[in-house]
Design the sequence.
């Protein structure tokens, strides 16, 4: 039985950020070389759209992480980790029914 590996969102966004930085560096070098030489040209709108998409993904992840952190900070530790809120919510042996 094979199991599919899950890609973590943090890993994916980290890889996208590294790829975007590499593309930006390459775009800058090729643009500089092409400008100086006069014969190379980079498709600027496509490159900038890619970098903008990566920026939106990274910022959305950070915003979601901060919102989740703020929401969890307001919860009690019992609610945060999925335990019942109060002891009266838990049925004791005489209160349980067979059905």
Sequence:
């Amino acid at each position: 039985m094979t199991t599919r590996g899950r890609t973590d969102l943090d890993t994916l966004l980290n890889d996208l950020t590294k790829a975007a930085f590499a593309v930006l560096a390459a775009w800058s070098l090729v643009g500089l070389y092409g400008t100086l030489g006069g014969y190379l040209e980079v498709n600027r709108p496509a490159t900038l759209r890619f970098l903008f998409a990566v920026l939106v993904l990274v910022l959305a992840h950070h915003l979601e992480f901060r919102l989740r952190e703020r929401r969890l900070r307001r919860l009690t530790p019992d609610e945060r980790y999925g335990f019942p809120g109060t002891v009266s919510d838990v049925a004791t042996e005489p209160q349980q029914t067979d059905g």
